[in-house]
Amino acid sequence: MFDMWWPRRRRQQQELSAFADGELADETTDRVAERVVFDERARQELLSVRRIDALVAAALAPHPQADANVRAGAAADAALDAICAQLPAPPPTTPEPRNWTPTVVASVGLLVTAGVAFAGLKRRGWV
Amino acid sequence: MAISRSQLEIHRADSARVDGILSGGHETFRDLVVEYHPLAFSLAYRSLGDPQDAEEVVQDAFVKIHGALDGFRGDASLKTWILRIVWRLSLNRRRDRARSAWRRLGLHQSAEDADVRVAGPVAESPEARLLSREARQLVRELVDGLPPTLREVLILNSFEELGYEEIARILDVPVGTVSSRIHAARRKLAARLQKSAKN
């Protein structure tokens, strides 16, 4: 008799616990609600569940703070800073070597031309 | 498992958000942190009981979340996924803290009191106003003293916005297990409260 009664009692208590959380399927909800209405012991158990929940909520919940939005924004910025700090640094950029060749060739060509012209003019005694 | 229309919409919105962040949207990520910070902080605080520790855990969690976003498959909602990471990091911090000499010597109590004083006057929640500081401390100690599997469901169930299914996803256990553990946790806590009231 005890073995048959005990599991049923445990199941009923567990259902009541889930009922308090609004986690039962519709048909079970109706059945448990009926039990709560007509059974004094079920009503007391439900009250006890609610009391425990209220105590836990009061004991564990953080104090609501007026600047919650500001704190969330600051936390977001700090997280982004930390993420950016973790990103691999970009490789150092070496300045691209300047392409001197055409400039140098043109300058040397001009200097040679000017030198030859000057030497020719000097030989003729014009300068 | 069948997915409802609202779940599908949440899933789509989450995926779009994740894609936005992955394509370099720092502003989108900032919005995500701002939206989920209060819930994440509350969860870490309920687990750790210390505002500074909770803030640090949440900070670490969001950095980790950013790094792991490309692994988000959408099996659970973004909210559940974020809370799961916060929860795991809170447990790690709890474990580390339990090992620290500071804690073992009991010196953390005075430091936490100082933290509260430094934080300045804060408004108390309506429930908290009904309980004295000592009573809150007692209930917290009794919750802390529960076996870990019962403590965790009790803490997660204290969030109105978390149903059994979400708790099951966060803890990676079946919904039936969540239900039976919550019941067991309530019974055990009630018994311990009665015992402490008699003493």
Give the structure's gist in a few sentences.
The complex is a heterodimer of chains A (127) and B (199). With 127 residues, chain A is an all-alpha fold.
Please characterize this protein's 3D structure:
The complex is a heterodimer of chains A (127) and B (199). Chain A is rod-shaped, with a radius of gyration of 45 Å. Chain A is mainly α. Chain A has a domain at 2-60. Chain A is 75% helix and 0% strand. Chain A has helices at residues 2-20, 26-38, 40-60, 68-86, 101-123. By secondary structure, chain B is an all-alpha fold. Chain B has two domains: 1-122, RNA polymerase sigma factor, region 2, helix turn helix motif (Rna Polymerase Sigma Factor, Chain: A); 126-199, Winged helix-like DNA-binding domain superfamily/Winged helix DNA-binding domain (Arc Repressor Mutant, subunit A), CATH 1.10.10.10. In chain B, 78% of the residues lie in helices and 0% in strands. Chain B is built from eleven helices and no strands. Chain B has helices spanning 5-22, 26-48, 51-68, 78-99, 101-104, 108-119, 126-130, 133-144, 148-157, 164-171, 175-198. The longest helix of chain B has 24 residues, at 175-198. Chain B is globular and about 60 Å long. At the A-B interface, helix 1, helix 3 and helix 4 of A face helix 2, helix 3, helix 7, helix 8 and helix 9 of B.
Radius of gyration of chain A: 45 Å
Taking all residues together, what is the mean pLDDT of chain A?
Answer: 83
- The total count of strands of chain A amounts to 0
Computed structural class of chain A: mainly alpha
Top keywords for this entry?
heterodimer; A: 127 residues; mainly alpha; B: 199 residues; Rna Polymerase Sigma Factor, Chain: A; Arc Repressor Mutant, subunit A; 78% helix; globular
